[in-house]
Design a protein that fits this description.
heterodimer; A: alpha/beta; D-Maltodextrin-Binding Protein, domain 2; eight-stranded mixed β-sheet; globular; B: MetI-like fold; 0% strand
Chain lengths: 293, 235
């Protein structure tokens, strides 16, 4: 109808009205639609950036930890950035994060010594497990200890999938190879060894697909168990302990917020939240709190 | 500017030091995407010609579908292919997930709509009178087809450039179906993501520049093919 030769004015008017209403609605969307009433002004919250690791994120711990912290400290809103331990420490160095929660104690202590962090404390630990195919072609279940297990895997009867990303888990894996006297495998030299360069979730999926072994933290494995065709073939060895630490970043943008998170996570209330996480869903603790021990 | 130049300098030092096998990463990228665009051309060019020249019921719908397909998110394609090839999926017995084969499959799916849509437009733009005239002068069907392709070559080269450009730089599909396995399925884009995750922005930046250099080099070759094709048409 509007294409007819007549009514060019009508066309222009409609086009103008359409454009104007679209423009106005876009502008309108960017304004806050509700004005706080005089009686209840919402308090301004500041953002705290917490850099942590992908395995912690994948376990789901932050889904209970962050709301608990924000309830106890309503002045802050936490933004979790989950990356590899290496990048998390880098974020701290560049002051792109206010507080860190990672699991590489030696690197954490170096970080503080170098002046990038004000203080560091133990928060909780969980353990690593070796998972693999039910059939267990390398015989890891029957191995006498972790050393025997790693040596058995190195025979190459089944693939071993490594994080290969300088994460806490990866560093633990390298320590295990070293401790068992096996020369650190590489994908180039050993056909059975794969290196993903990614987080725990992806690495577990790849290990499952390839019917191979991998070193995982218990929390991530449990949270993904149903999607994987992997079973626990080794657990409980002393060398498989995984200690988490919290660090306040020096001269962070939100120094007060970072410090608040650090102080809070070491309180008995926070430690209780950690100890209860996962019990209902998986029937076991995923993290064992050990602040101040 | 210091943060960029410092990072870049560190990055090039690392990449040339030999600790990271840059050559394998680059050659895997080129092998996977090169093969994928070649297959996409074999599949897509005939389809594009059909779509561009023949009039049939549902042609408009097909054109819409392929044009829309140019906007297919690579990560969506990656997800579907991964689900299909996974052990729990219908083609799980082939054990193809996390292999270069899987990556080629996903990238072919991404490139085909691009090749089809652009080549359909290119051949469709060849004047019908030209084809009628050739036929009237006694040319057989396939000869007319070759003539059309020749007339449309500038647009067809654009189809190649579009298809290749889309897949050499995508990360969603190759990440999902390849798994970024070192020495096997690690390509430039997934390696860049990995460097970034490790906090090594320098290497990520340097490798990204290598990727861009390759894309520019390929396009220099393709555009010069186009302009030399143009020259023949001048009186």
């Amino acid at each position: 109808m509007l294409r007819s030769k007549g009514a060019p004015h009508l066309r222009r008017a409609v086009a103008f009205a359409l454009t104007a209403s679209i423009a106005l609605s876009l502008v309108g969307c960017s304004q806050p639609t509700t004005e706080p009433s005089d009686a209840e002004q919402p308090a301004a919250t500041s953002e705290v950036i917490l850099a942590s690791t992908t395995s912690t994120q994948d376990s789901g711990l932050f889904d209970v930890l962050v709301p608990a912290f924000e309830k106890a400290n309503p002045a802050y809103k936490v933004k979790v950035i989950a990356v590899g331990t290496g990048e998390a420490l880098k974020l701290g160095e560049n002051k792109d994060a206010d507080v860190l929660l990672v699991h590489a104690k030696a690197d954490e202590e170096k970080f503080v010594e170098a002046g990038f962090g004000i203080e560091r404390a133990d928060v909780m630990y969980n353990d690593f497990i070796i998972v693999g195919p039910e059939a267990d072609p390398a015989g890891v279940k029957a191995a006498a200890d972790t050393t025997a297990a790693m040596t058995a895997i190195a025979e190459g009867k089944a693939p071993f999938v490594s994080r290969g990303d300088d994460s806490g888990t990866h560093k633990k894996e390298l320590k295990l190879w070293k401790a068992s006297g096996v020369e650190t495998p590489t994908p180039e030299a050993q056909q059975w060894y794969e290196s993903t360069g990614q987080g725990m979730g992806e690495t577990l999926k790849i290990a499952s697909e390839k019917a191979g072994y991998t070193l995982a933290d218990r929390a991530t494995y449990l949270s993904m168990k149903d999607a994987l065709d992997l079973v626990i073939v080794r657990e409980g060895d002393k060398g498989l302990l995984n200690q988490y630490g919290v660090i306040v970043v020096t001269d962070a943008k939100n120094q007060a917020g970072g410090q608040a998170f650090y102080d809070w996570i070491l309180t008995p209330e926070a430690q209780k939240v950690i100890s209860e996480f996962g019990v209902a869903e998986y029937g076991q603790q995923l993290f064992v709190p050990n602040a101040g021990q | 500017m210091d943060i960029y130049t410092d990072a870049l300098a560190d990055g090039f030092v690392l990449l040339t030091s030999g600790t990271v096998d840059v050559w394998t990463i680059v050659s895997t990228s080129l092998r996977v995407s090169g093969l994928a665009v070649a297959i996409a051309l074999v599949v897509g060019l005939p389809l594009g010609m059909l779509l561009g020249l023949k009039r049939f019921i549902g042609r408009t719908a097909a054109l819409i579908i392929f044009n829309a397909g140019m906007g297919l998110p690579p990560v969506f394609v990656g997800l579907l292919v991964a689900m299909t090839l996974s052990r729990r999926g219908p083609l799980g017995d082939l054990s193809l997930l996390y292999s270069q084969t899987a990556m080629v499959i996903a990238q072919v799916i991404i490139a085909v709509p691009i090749v089809v849509a652009i080549s359909a437009a290119a051949v469709g733009a060849v004047p019908r009178e030209l084809r009628w005239q050739a036929a009237a002068l006694g040319a057989q069907r396939w000869r007319v087809g070759m003539l059309t392709l020749s007339e449309a070559r500038v647009g067809l080269i654009a189809a190649v450039a579009g298809g290749f450009g889309a897949i050499i730089s995508e990360v969603g599909a190759v990440q999902m179906v390849g798994g970024n396995l070192r020495g096997e399925t690690r390509v430039m884009t997934t390696a860049i993501v990995e460097f970034t995750r490790k906090g090594d922005y320098g290497s990520a930046l340097a490798l990204a520049l290598v990727l861009m250099a390759i894309v520019v080099a390929v396009n220099i070759a393709l555009v010069s093919m186009q302009t030399s094709a143009d020259k023949w048409d001048r009186p």
